[in-house]
Amino acid sequence: MANALKGFLILLICLFINSSTSNAQVSLGVEGGFSLNHLFTKMIGYNSTKNVTKLGATTGLIIQYKLTDNTFIETTPGFVSKKYSFARTGLLKGAFLSFENNYLQLPVTLNFVFGNKLKFFLGPGIYTAYWLSGSEYGNIPDIFSASQQADDTSDTLTLVYFKKSHRFDPTLDNRWEFGVSASCGLRYPLNEKYKIGLSVKYYQALTSRYKVNTANTYTNYNGTGTACLSLIYSLN
Amino acid sequence: MVKKGMIFSVLVVFLLTLCCSCKKTTERFSIHKDPQNFTELFDSFWAEMNINYVYWDIDKTNWDAIHDQYKPKFDELDIHNSVDLKKSVSYFKEISKELIDGHYTILFSPEAISDFSVTPAIDRKRAESSFHEPYLFSMVDPHYLDEGYTTGNYLTNSKIEITATTGTINKNILFFSCSGFELKEAVLKDNSNTLKTVISRFFDEVENNISKYRGIIIDLRNNQGGGLSDLNYFLSHLTHDPINFGDTRYKAGNGRLQFTPWISAQTIPGLLKSNLSTPLIVLVDNYTISLAEVIAMALRTQKNVKLVGETTFGATGPLTDNIVYNAGQFDVGGFCKVYTSSATYRYIDKVIYESKGFPPDIKLTITPFDFNNGKDAQLEKAINIIN
Question: Does the keyword ATP-binding apply (chain B) (predicted)?
Answer without folding.
Answer: no
